[in-house]
Every structure is written in C-alpha cells, then in structure tokens.
Amino acid sequence: MDLSPRHRLILKALVEEFVSDNRPVGSKTLSEKYSIGLSPATIRASLSDLEEFGYIAARHTSGGRVPTERGYRFYVDSLVTIYELTIKEKQRIQEEYLRMQFRLDEILKATSKVLASLSQTASVVLGPEKSLDTLKHLELIHVNGGEILLIMVMRSGKVINKNFFIDNHISQEHLFQVSRYLNDYLKGYDIYEILDSILPKLMQRTDGPEEFRGIAGALSSAIASNGFEEDSLYVDGLKNLIESFGPEKEKLEGVMQMFDEKRFLKNFFAEYVGLDGIYTIIGKDGDSQLGGVTIIATSYRMGEKKIGSMGIIGPQRMNYNKALPLIEFTSKLVSEMITKLSR
Questions:
Q1: Residues 171/173/177/180 CA torsion (nearest 10 deg)
Q2: Most buried one in 16, 42, 103, 147, CB count within 10 A?
Q3: Tens-place pLDDT, residues 238-289
C-alpha cells in the first residue's frame, strides 16, 4: 500500500533514528528530536498504523519500535536522502588508489579496502572472468621442433603463456607473420569472442598466411584450455561486521557462514555483473543467511563492457544515506581507472 505523507515522515524519522542510535524508537523521541510538527499522541497513532501495515515492529514491550525488512525496503526505495560525498571523502578514496601500481588485481584489492573502511561494513569485489578480459597483443614464439609458445597480453595487464604442439616445423619468421595477422583481427576482443567468432571466420578465409591454417586448430585449443572461467573475489571488513551487528549476534552466524562459502558470494554477486544501477537487497526470499542483512551491489566496467561487480554487506540498520553514494562514486572511479588501464 502507499503511505500517507504523515506516515512517510514518521517512518523516515524512525529509520534514521534507529540507524543512528540502535535502540527502539518511541513517539516521545520522534516528537522531541525531529521537526515533525505532530503531537506525541498523533505520532503514537501513526506508529500503530505503521506496525499494522508491517513497516515497523515492537521489539520489546517498552513501546519502542524498530523497522522491519518491509520498512527498510520502503525507506530505501522512497524516502532515503542521498548525500553527496564530501571532497575529503572523495580524496580519501582516490588517494588509496594512488598508493599502488596500476594493475587490475591491485585496483580491485584497494576497492574492497576502501569500501569496507568508509562504510564500516564488509565489502565484496568480484573480479572479471578471465574470458571477459580483452586481448592487447599476441605473440607466437618457436620453441623446438613442433612446439610453439603462445604469449597473450591482456588489457588488464595479465600475461598468459601457453605451449602447444603441431606436427610440422614452422620457422620463427613465419610465426612473426602469423602473429601480425592475428593481432590485426583479434585485438580488442575477449576470449569468448575470439574462440566463438573471430578465429572460426579467419580459418575459413584464404587470404591470410598459409602457416596460420596449419596451426589454427592447435592454437584455438591452446586458448580454450587456459582456465578462463576463473574469477577473483576480494573481501574486506569482516571485523566491521562483528562490531556492527552488536546485540544482534544471533544473526551473525549465518552471515559469517556466507563468507566462508565463497561460492555463495561469487554466485550472488555474479547476478549483478551485467546489470546497470545500484541494487539494495534487504533480506532475500527468506534465506536464513540473509536474515537481518542488507547487501548493496553494483557493477563496474571496462569501457562499455560490464566486467565485474562490487558491494557491501552489513546489518539492515546501516547508513543508507552515505552507503549508496559511496558505492556509486567508487564504481565510477574504478570503471574509469580500468578503462584507462585497458588502452
């Protein structure tokens, strides 16, 4: 149901007071601390309505209320005020990246550290599948007899080496010609595109070096066998989780189990790699591991291609006003750095 302006005003104040103080909120507190312009009696009646609607609940018999998952959901979707990060906060984020080398893994590791530190929650950054990295340069080197070394330099800075074998000998001069030919057509494509589309088309053409057709099958197998399905997961701030759940320690066991099961986190954050925007997940379909938990997730890019995701995990009683712009700013900054790295 849609809430009246009065109900919205009171729910917004209650959520923000609970996030700030972590104690059940009563009508007297709302009347004295917030410019609501309503009497305590009117506030009490509205709190009763909100409890009946399922947006708040009474934790104890003291009369104070706390937000429910439904209340948090409505607050994030309709009531939250998104603050602009201060210049100092933005500089702190940028300075963290300036301390390390411009390599993809270093950028993602720094990102998890920044998110955990500034949000005071746990952070998760899902690195790109190796198959989503794009080729910057390829070289074929003659090793011995029919053995050839394939060197692939990716836009992320990773260097991949793979030896493969053919039945006949090809001179290094001819391998240089094949390398130049392949670079002309393969640069800028990811591994899926190279294997599924580009290489098969080149194998059907007759205008390339004759030696290419002699190694094309073995080359394709070498690229495909290099374990490109691996991805990286960067986690930070688990200590923050323990501290932030405070009296809600009973919910912490399921959350920590989630971090022990890395496959769960990978699968969860993989859902957001291909999506635009910022997503706030407040509980999820009764999953016991997500009870009392909020996850804020978004994707990041290399150029126009979405290649990974990042986010924070904390109690539902988190500062959404600051957490949402933090995720947005960091995602944009990381995307810019990775795009520059890829050129």
A1: 110
A2: 16
A3: 888 888 876 666 677 777 777 877 888 999 999 999 999 999 999 875 566 6
